[in-house]
Amino acid sequence: MQISDKYSPQETENKWYAYWLKNNYFHSEPNDKPPYTIVIPPPNVTGILHMGHMLNNTIQDVLVRRARMQGFNACWVPGTDHASIATEAKVVAKLKAEGINKEDISREVFLKHAWDWTDKYGGTILEQLKKLGCSCDWDRTSFTMEPKLSRQVIKSFVDLYNKGLIYRGYRMVNWDPEAKTNISDEEVIFKEQNGKLYYLKYKVEGSEEFISVATTRPETIFGDTAVCINPNDERYAHLRGKKVIVPIVNRAVPIIEDDYVDVEFGTGALKITPAHDTNDYEIGKRHGLQMIDSLDEHANLNGYGQHYAGKNRFIVRKEIAKELAEKGLLIKAEDYVNKVGTSERTGAVIEPKVSVQWFLKMADLAKPALDVVMNDEIKFHPEKFKNTYKHWMENIRDWNISRQLWWGQQIPAYFFGDGENDFVVAETMEGALELARDKAMDQTLEISDLRQDDDALDTWFSSWLWPMSVFDGISSPDNKEINYYYPTSDLVTGPDIIFFWVARMIMAGLEYRSEVPFKNVYFTGIVRDKQRRKMSKSLGNSPDPIELMEKYGADGVRVGILLSSAAGNDLLFDEELMLQGRNFATKIWNAYKLVQGWKKDETIKANPADMQAINWFGEQTKKTIAEITVQFEKFRISDALHLVYKLIWDDFCSWYLEAVKPNYGEAVSQEVYLRTIAYFEDLLKLLHPFMPFLTEELWQHIAVRTTDDALVITQQPKESDFDKEIIQNFEVSKEVISGVRNYRQSKGISPREEVEVFTNAKEFNNLELICKLANISRVHFAEKTDKPSFSFLVGGTEISIPLSENLDLAEEKSKTEEEIKYLKGFLISVQKKLSNEKFMAGAPQQVVDNELKKQKDAQDKIVLLEEKLKTL
Q1: Which of 60, 87, 105, 456 could bridge to 109 as Cys pair (CB 3.0-4.6 Å)?
Q2: Which domains does the chain have, with CATH numbers?
Q3: Alpha helices, DSSP H only, in 360-425?
């Protein structure tokens, strides 16, 4: 069947993706094949496709498709994360637009709205991944809030609580006043901000003396419970044991001493607000200070804020500075730059807040999880991230796993009284009732007497179980699927969640299955624009991936992304790369059109030039397959694609097809045609993981295929030994051909004009091929021409072409002299480097060898040109 003149990605992509789905090629069930398993880093259910997703999921798809074609039972589990903070914020905003406040409705009503929102928008990003060609097992699509996964999260919480690893306690947390929940330390981003350093007067009780205290947050004075000095600061020795009056608040608080105070910062005296500063909180605990929380959950001043009650903290900061100045209590305000913690999710300035939270002890979980990475049981690609991982794991803190949200798995703790410990932890309300009756020693308790904790679990507490929970491995730890698919094979993710997710999955896997959750972790880089800025919606520098795929085709975009994305290195996005990908698709399409258009003749045989090209390309393909295997083993996906790209564009299109194509109007032998098609099929197999749509389209054009013969499930060519000599000989032949072509180009001679060649060689390998591609009428072996000639070297072999009689010999002589002059100058610079003792002592041998080769090449060329000069 004749293919169209132009490749149409839109028609091709929709057709073949539907075909793959219809025939269930992506679905996996446990069988006798070796498994290859990847679990997708679940994108937020609120998300839409961005360039980071494109990079990450393209790499995963390449790995999965290649594994499938290598005979593995490939299983790529897709899914989404419920994203507590982000999703709840979306639902709250939607309700607000409808005139409904979250505070005015029940948890049950809110969750109904949240599920409605999720059902409507939650699958958007997964549908977009299908446009990219992702070969996920869609029958296995999971969601971290679906019943099967939620049950496992709750079961895990109860198990860890019963092991003594989960506890409840008062702690200083990072409060996000916009999301109205605490967040983990890892979710806090510190940003430099311009502010003021305010110097306030704290009057010493019972005297006219005052002490100057510097603060960047005067609005927190309502929570002050002490002023602290360094015990070695003689400036304040006379104030030991005394009290000061907090400005405006007029509350007497003690002057305390602590080594934490830096005598060089500010005035050397600190206001201590234990409920609103992490360091003050620790000082407050050491000195038994009262904790006064003067801010509400919105970070507005509460009743302690007196006449500022109900006002936003930043408005109060400005107003209270003015009031302090008016009352003579503000000494001065200096410009000051400090780092302010902000929420990764909402961007709100974090407010330190003391509250009751649930925590998971991490020290015992972290040690084995550190060991398996440091001993390479789990390999990181690139390896540099081991140091990042090690630093975090060795300095790990207990994980705050509770969130003041409704969207998420509700913590399975049930309270039955007003005491601090009047609670039990159980998987079900019924189970909780039995435990509560025993703990309270009251068998009359009923379910109606129990109250479940309002908090939800941190989203990461569900996704840390992901490689197990998608196979029901927590609820049913010995089921067929978890035993077959776990541990998974590879994980592809970004280094920004190495702590949030990667480390915690390793901990969970070792805790629950005594096995690592994956064998390799491939860290992608961050996609940046040409100015090296991270792509984001707020900057408006991120292109729409769907629009890119419509413009360049999904295959073109995949190739464009991968060509510049070495593991762990940031990708500088350039739309020209997408164009390169599309041009590559066009090149392949046109190559097939060329071959398909050849006339075939069964009566003729392949000539020697054809067979030389055929033999070479077979060996070159084997060599490239071996190199591709090495790159995949090292997770150099970009380098593997470069190898396939070169094999197709340079070796196949530029050299092989040029060598075997028939002259205009002539036919090609059946043998050459069939071998060419066989090679083309091998190339499609190698390329398929990178460009699935184009390759399947051409594969199905080549022959009538059954559903069992679709390219997506066809075996890739296996590694085999290759003949290095055949490859090396062809490289020499290419140099000869290129040298003759360069002669024509530099002298303005038509490629159709035959030339004679003189050489000191006794023979050429691939002689017939050289003569065909270089259009040589005759080669004079072991002969030297006495005519003016164009000469060049291939290794130690000298090749000369008599100059055309039409050439201006005077001009040729001038050019030759200029070339000799340049080469002599170049030779001097190389010899200067080689005579430098410091260079010779410090340079790697490979570098020295390279310089020595430059020297010899220049010397040989000079000799050749000087010989030529004698004939002009």
Answers
A1: 105
A2: 181-352 (3.90.740.10), 413-452 (no CATH), 545-722 (1.10.730.10), 808-872 (1.10.287.380)
A3: 363-374, 385-394
